[in-house]
């Protein structure tokens, strides 16, 4: 079992860790409140605030390394105090938070810098940076909270920022719809997450990480299962995993830096963070772990298969993100030592996927915002920096040693083969197959974009390389993609031990030996990439593709959208219409009918007011006679 | 027959009251209506005085005085209203003064 979880109180320099959240938040507030007055310099404030957060994050990180227990807790103020519910506005800075802080602020700074160039011609650039800073603040709060309510606070904050940024070009109907779709699908997951928090409070009387993780052992396995499944629902919503994966590719309607930062490197990995952070809950129930592994394995295949059939450069990358996060879910579901593997894959993915998206943005920048890879080709000659950095990120994601993807993805595949019995084969082969398909579609993307014959539209005469402010982040991210994997696979796993447990001494018992898995994963990767190169180097993509049932299904997102529409949307609309009918005819009918009855009755009763004195006199006389008759009857009856 | 049976007075009062009530119901001239109301009031007075006599106390007579005072006040106000109606409409028919209705 887990040892008791406890965190030391922060003091000294580390008690200012709240600045990490406050600085981007203040910058966002300034940019939004000053309005047009900040148009000239607003983007530099946006970049500066996140860069300052990064420097601070580095300083905190080195401070934390010097501590013995590697975690500090900081309570800023009482946030909620109702009855026995007590929630502090508390922060927790521990190894897991620290790596996320460095990822968010580090990659975030580069993407902010890139966005200065990318959004140069956009009239809404200041607003864009305000939302971007808001996102950074919310994401930092998400990873820095010391209880589930803080996590939820940040969770909703990034959801809001994501919605605002997907629908940033709201005058385009597709972008507005995509924003709404993302927001609504996230609501489904968030509802599950919220109920999980309610359940924690109801069962354990607290929502603090320390109390919940220490109390998990005392809960029945059924409660743990339900709690974990609800948390998983939240995680699948935010991370674009099955069954809530459909929003993420549509989110590519936002500006490319948004896709890179929010929908590739950071926000969509929040689900992985949630599960890794809640590892005492997920490790406590085997069924739960199997469900997480299944979600991961299924999603990584779904993402990879659909990625093969898309022609939009950003959508291919989006489905690739879905697929790679599937690997991370596979990792956190396997539990034990694989938690740390999922986190390092997340970090490596943050680098190379951000690099890929920014590279895609750079290509679009030079090609009049064309996104169809069938309309590219031969670009390597015109965009050398983009080509080189994109190429390195491509080699990293498909897992060619010694780039980062190899060091982070291959151990997850190996870990999948270490499960018990037939599930080892099932999940191991799924992960291996995913790696092969990843290599195929990423190679297709790379070759169609940068090599082969030119298939440009007529309006493009001379594509140009992006300005230095955009290529500099590309180079830095490419360096990260190359170097990070080896660095992280050794040191970060040790660094995360206080949070995710020490598994270094455990003997791995795979159904096939680790060496063979390594060899196999390299072989399938090379095969997939080779197939992709052989098929697409000639630029044959413009010809009519043989669209069999599988290709058609993949182009339609494996009918997930159609399924949602048929099963949820149509009955939902029907239900709404039925309720409107019931409301209009039933409830309004009742109220209106009553009013009409009273109104009609009164207008008939009004006819008694004839205006003739004698009729009034008659009614008075009749009344008087009735009174007299009543008296008489009483009197006589009493006498009798 | 010096000591007349007081019940005869009650019967007379009832007859007078009925004449007044019927008059109010069937006549249209406001002045006649008014006189019929006076007839009813005085029928009531007669009954009150008779009861006073039968019971041997003064309660009924005192009530009769109150009725007379009220009737006098009512005549003053009522005749003034009838006068002003007549001035505007050149008619004292109560059926023509029928604007206050549904």
Describe this structure in words.
The complex is a heterodimer of chains A (640) and B (102). In chain A, a hairpin with a 2-residue loop joins strand 2 and strand 3. Chain A has a three-stranded mixed β-sheet. Chain A is built from 24 helices and three strands. In chain A, 71% of the residues lie in helices and 3% in strands. Chain A has helices at residues 19-34, 42-65, 95-118, 125-144, 148-166, 173-204, 209-215, 221-239, 247-250, 256-265, 270-277, 279-283, 286-309, 313-334, 338-366, 384-398, 404-416, 421-450, 468-495, 497-500, 514-536, 549-555, 560-605, 613-639; strands at 8-9, 72-82, 85-93. Chain B is mostly helical and 102 residues long. Chain B has one domain (7-89): Helix Hairpins, CATH 1.10.287.3510. Chain B has helices at 7-26, 30-55, 59-89. Chain B starts with 6 loop residues before the first helix and ends in a 13-residue tail after the last helix. The mean pLDDT of chain B is 90. The interface between A and B is small, with 11 and 12 residues.
Which tags fit this structure?
heterodimer, A: mainly alpha, 24 helices, 71% helix, B: 102 residues, mainly alpha, Helix Hairpins, 3 helices, elongated, NADHpl_OxRdtase_5_subgr (chain A), NADH dehydrogenase activity (chain A), Proton_antipo_N (chain A)
Structural class of chain A: mainly alpha
Oligomer: heterodimer
Largest sheet strand order of chain A: 1-2-3
Secondary structure: number of strands of chain A = 3
What distance lies between the first and last C-alpha atoms of chain A, to the nearest angstrom? 96 Å
Most extensive chain interface and residues per partner: A-B, 11 and 12 residues
What is the overall silhouette of chain B?
A: elongated
Overall geometric form of chain A: globular
Remind me, CATH topology of chain B?
Helix Hairpins
Family (chain B): Belongs to the complex I subunit 4L family.
GO molecular function (chain B): NADH dehydrogenase (quinone) (non-electrogenic) activity; quinone binding
Catalytic activity (chain B): a quinone + NADH + 5 H(+)(in) = a quinol + NAD(+) + 4 H(+)(out)
GO biological process, one term (chain B): ATP synthesis coupled electron transport
